[in-house]
Write a structure and sequence with these properties.
about 525 residues, alpha+beta, Transferase(Phosphotransferase), domain 1, six-stranded antiparallel beta sheet, three-stranded mixed beta sheet, about 35% helix, elongated
């Protein structure tokens, strides 16, 4: 992935204007492994003797090829930078860098620009800080009836605190809006409107909005559900240190995507489009260690994925941050129509879910590059390596589903999140995963054990379905299941012979489909 700045800000900005139709120096193909492959097609400007495979679902619009480069408008990529602060200025609540609404974490080299944990994920290791100054909205202060107990982090829109609500005797997340946003009456009104809309959704996988008080002591703030657990981005980044793969078993990844799609489906039914679905905006509730001050209660609940920050992109648009021809943040999670400032529909979220699913399956993004211009070009061209070419245990069936979600043309994707559920759930049921929520919870509690046993569990189910498909004449489906079973157990001699025989049969059938018509033509001639 591209090296990224440690955190994102809104305010003073550094703007780089890039012609997305120009050819930049793309990354070359990386060395191959038995189950991993280069995540991108090689750039023609760099090499002509090799080419990484592309998705089987190709855009109907022409891609950038020799002799034909479709004209596209210039896209301005805004890389937000922190506003300049005078040396003699007093400290304020905007002092802590971090992702949008979340803890400050320095993104390691190779992590996507958006790869910074965010939102109100409660961090038990974060020490409490003294108030920035007496009477300020810092730790120890009170906003309305909410007592600010601990600073969880800050981002481009707000500083987030763990706070206590004495009236209801519960801890909440209080998001104090930054000065440069709350001074705008339009921003404040949009924020309140979006918060009210999200508060009506009421879904287990949506972080709940409790309150949007009027200005209190000059501060504007939101009160939301406090989620005890890390962001999904943090969970994925912790994989190497915890001795697990950076990607999830396919059915576990599908179970997590299913929860997010169900949350989005509720929003889409109400006419709300999230616009910014990515691991940074997904929290894993119920993963706080029991030893932490807030872990005893969460440890009794089944871990679940929760989507947050609904409507934030729409609120920021009031400042012109996402106006025509401009992009705020990383384009790696954006649909082509978002980059091109096209119509925003539910299919924007469907595409983002496809990017999320791909990353969960492979440990990498489908569209990546050395700089934002390369990423933009790949998104617009629809170029990505099929997921099963990177990780063989993904299998052709899941790879085809992901490719459909990532289709370049909107009409080729499901119309909304309900359509995503309709294509994922039957595949889970066909493989005997009847309770995806329980499977996901078991994995999140002990990912190393579940992942280690997943191949042995899936292999017999894949072989059974492959036999049924061959008996019904479905050679393609049988091949997908057999290849995936072989990826789990490449040392099985019987399976190797079966797959080898099937591949030889497929080659003869392809030759026959071409050879028989040619032979008939020769006889006629």
């Amino acid at each position: 992935m591209a090296a990224a700045p440690a955190a994102a800000y809104l305010g003073a900005e550094r703007v780089a204007e890039t012609d997305v139709s120009a050819r930049g120096g793309d990354e070359g193909a990386s060395p191959q492994t038995p189950t991993r492959a280069s995540p991108h097609a090689s750039d023609p400007a760099e090499t002509t003797d090799r080419e990484a495979p592309l998705s089987s679902v190709r855009p109907s619009a022409p891609t950038l090829q020799e002799g034909f480069a479709p004209a596209r408008p210039k896209v301005v990529v805004r890389t937000p930078v922190p506003p300049a602060v005078p040396q003699d200025a007093p400290p304020s609540i905007e002092r802590v860098p971090g992702g949008l609404f979340g803890p400050s974490v320095t993104a390691p080299t190779g992590v996507d620009p958006g790869s910074v944990p965010n939102l109100a994920a409660a961090s038990p290791s974060t020490p409490s800080r003294p108030s920035s100054r007496p009477g300020s909205s810092g730790v120890g202060a009170t906003l309305g009836r909410y007592e600010l107990l601990e600073e969880l982090g800050a981002g481009g829109m707000a500083t987030v605190y763990r706070a206590h609500d004495p009236r209801l005797d519960r801890d909440v997340a209080v998001k104090v809006i930054h000065h440069h946003l709350r001074e705008s009456a339009e921003i404040a009104e949009r924020l309140k409107h979006e918060a009210r809309a999200v508060a009506k959704l009421k879904h287990r996988s949506i972080v709940e909005i409790y309150d949007v008080p009027d200005t209190e002591g000059g501060e504007r703030f939101l009160v939301a559900e406090l989620v005890d657990g890390p962001s999904l981005r943090k969970f994925l980044q912790n994989a190497p240190a915890e001795g697990r793969d950076p990607f999830l078993p396919p059915e576990i990844a599908a179970a997590l995507v299913l929860q997010i799609a169900d949350a989005l489906s509720r929003a889409h039914e109400q006419g709300i489009v999230h616009r910014d679905v990515k691991p940074e905006n997904i929290l894993i509730a119920g993963l706080t260690p029991p030893s932490s001050p807030r872990g005893s209660d969460s440890s009794r609940r089944a871990p679940i994925a929760k989507l947050t920050d609904f409507g934030i992109a729409k609120v920021l648009d009031a400042q012109g941050m996402t106006s025509t021809g401009q992009i705020l943040g990383s384009p790696a999670h954006m649909s082509p129509e978002q980059i091109e400032a096209g119509e925003i529909t539910a299919r924007v979220d469907v595409f983002a879910v496809g990017v999320l699913f791909y990353e969960l399956l492979t440990g990498t993004l489908p569209f990546d590059g050395k700089n934002p211009a390369q990423v933009i070009r790949r998104v617009l061209d629809g170029q990505f390596t099929p997921a099963d070419r990177l990780v063989a245990t993904v299998g052709g069936r899941w790879s085809a589903i992901v490719a459909r979600l990532l289709a370049r043309e909107q009409a080729q994707r499901p119309a909304d999140a309900r359509g995503v559920i309709d294509v994922i759930r039957p595949e889970l049921e066909a493989l005997g995963v009847g309770d995806p929520d329980r499977e996901l919870a078991d994995y999140l509690r002990d990912p190393v054990a579940v992942q280690g046993a997943w191949g042995a569990r899936m292999k017999p189910r894949l072989l059974e379905r492959a036999r049924a498909a061959r008996a019904a004449g479905g050679g393609g489906g049988a091949a997908n299941d057999l290849n995936r079973a072989l990826a789990y157990d490449p040392s099985d001699p019987k399976l190797v012979r079966t797959v080898t025989s099937l591949r030889a049969r497929e080659r003869w059938m392809r030759l026959a489909r071409v050879g028989v018509p040619l032979a008939g033509l020769a006889i006629v001639l």
